[in-house]
Amino acid sequence: MSAMSKSGDSTPVVTDHWKKPPFIENPIIRYGVMLAVFAYLSITLLTLPIDWQRAAEGLERASRIFGGAFPPSFERSGLLIKGFLESFKIAILASVGGVLLSVPLAFMAAKNIAPKSIYLLGRGIIIVARSFHPVIVAILFVKAVGFGPLAGVLTLVVYSIGFVAKLLAERIEEIDFGQVEALKSAGASFIATVAYAILPQIMPRLVGLGIYQLDSNLRASAVVGIVGAGGIGATLANAFGRYDYDFALAITMVIVGVILISEAFSGVIRKRIS
Amino acid sequence: MSEHILQDSWARCTPVQRFQRFAAYAATALIVSWALSSLDIVWAWVWDAPEQVWDLLDRMIPPDPTNLPSILEAIWQTINIATIATAFAIVISLPVALIAAQNTTPNRATLWLGRFILVSSRSVNTLIWALLFVAIFGPGIIAGIVAIMFRSIGFLGKLLGEAIEEIDPKPIEALTACGASRLKVILYGIVPQVAPAFFAVAILRWDINLRESTVLGLVGAGGIGVILQGSIDTFNWPETSMVLLTILGLVIFGEFVSSKLRGKIL
């Protein structure tokens, strides 16, 4: 401790012990940050409404849940497969729809292509699409278009736009503008410029993003089903609601397995593309 | 290649490439039509959807701020869930990352144990963790914190583990050669090398957790989602849009803070 206080001095201190330089140089800020973090943590932790009795009962409940969950039951594997097929279809449709919508949106949201007002509109749409968790979007769509896979597809289209359009717009902003200028000076139309000067430059990124999004939509569709947007999530929520913990565990295990496979698969494809 | 020059019209793709492209398009169209035709969709609802969405938006305007104090309180709770859960997850993920990285794990058994922890934490979504912990702890903020924590451990541990695997082994060799203990090797050889990656990952996860915390309430695990669920269930659309606006504000605030912190630290 004594070495630490000396380290603030201007002259190098001659000690026989080396001390790691502190992370934040200024001691006032350093201790201020430490104090603030400590105060925040202790206040929030102390005011947490922990009900120890409830937690103790919870442990008993937990053992009942886990006891009920083992061994996992694959008896109703028909439902399981049906739910997964639906999730796959939702993910595919949402990825295709999302990518198709993301391309024009990305052009709108690229600073070097779009005029200022369209740029702001495009960015605004992307920010809103990114900000809301898919589950919130799903609830709204379930209210608007009813229960079922349609709400799931619409939700994941919004989710895909938020991710794909944002990263694609960033890629468009990084393109080599020489090719665009060359085509323009040769008298090419806007469409021809986009098709021959911009698209070839962003295509690898677009394909990579699309594949990544397919993987990520599959994950998300397992969740949005919990609020009624179809797919394997709906099957899981039903199993949980009916206290069929053994079936719920079986579903969760299959979800984990499928996600791992799809992650490995999309990783391999993306590596081959780039 | 030479015969291409003789052609009088230029084409971007060779015939083979063009064929490949069309095959890819056709395969995509086929898959999409299969998905569309076999999916359980009520088409009357599809054509009705734009009108319904507009109707919903129409009912949400203008937002109703009468309940703003309790909304802001729930937002504060949401921030607390995200922050506390991230803090705990960081502490727990450090040893997990150490045993899940190939160059620091004591032996093969611990390596696989570490990987197992990371994979199972990462593959189960926060909401599914929340369903489980609500059943255990009962509805409330505790279930939310624990759920977010469980999901974050896998994320933090995986990225930290990768950062640890990429470190330069020389400082560690030097320390070991001087006879430093295992703890000192970690503290002075590994920690300084992974600290930047560590802070970047932790800030990123905090930002993600902020978003995830907004939906915990939908399964009863505390935060702004409780109010959102309540207002949706009672068809109180003006309040719903108010909640959505504050969530938007919260997310933008989170992005602002995390980009500021990132700029400060890195």
Summed over residues and divided by their number, the pLDDT of chain A gives a mean of 83
Helix content of chain B: over 70%
User: Biggest protein-protein interface?
Assistant: A-B, 60 and 57 residues
How much β-strand is present in the residues of chain B? under 5%
Low-confidence stretches of chain B: none
Write the CATH homologous superfamily of chain A.
MetI-like
SSE topology string of chain B: HHHHHHHHHHH
What would you report as the Rg of chain B, rounded to the nearest angstrom? 26 Å
Examine the coordinates and then state which fold CATH places here, giving the name of the CATH topology of chain A. Answer: MetI-like fold
Oligomer state of the chains in this structure: heterodimer
CATH architecture of chain A: Orthogonal Bundle
DSSP E strands of chain B, number:
0
User: What's the shape of chain A?
Assistant: extended
Structure description:
Chain A is 77% helix and 0% strand. Chain A is mainly α. Chain A has one domain (75-273): Orthogonal Bundle (MetI-like fold), CATH 1.10.3720. The radius of gyration of chain A is 27 Å and the shape is extended. Chain A starts with a helix and ends with a helix. The model of chain A is unreliable at 1-9 (pLDDT under 50). By secondary structure, chain B is an all-alpha fold. Chain B has 11 helices and no strands. Chain B has helices at 2-6, 15-38, 43-60, 68-100, 108-123, 126-137, 141-165, 170-177, 182-216, 224-233, 237-265. In chain B, helix 4 (68-100) crosses helix 11 (237-265). Chain B is extended and about 75 Å long. The relative contact order of chain B is 0.12. The mean pLDDT of chain B is 86. At the A-B interface, helix 2, helix 3, helix 4, helix 5 and helix 6 of A face helix 2, helix 3, helix 4, helix 5 and helix 6 of B. Chain A: It is found in: Cell membrane. Chain A: It is a multi-pass membrane protein.
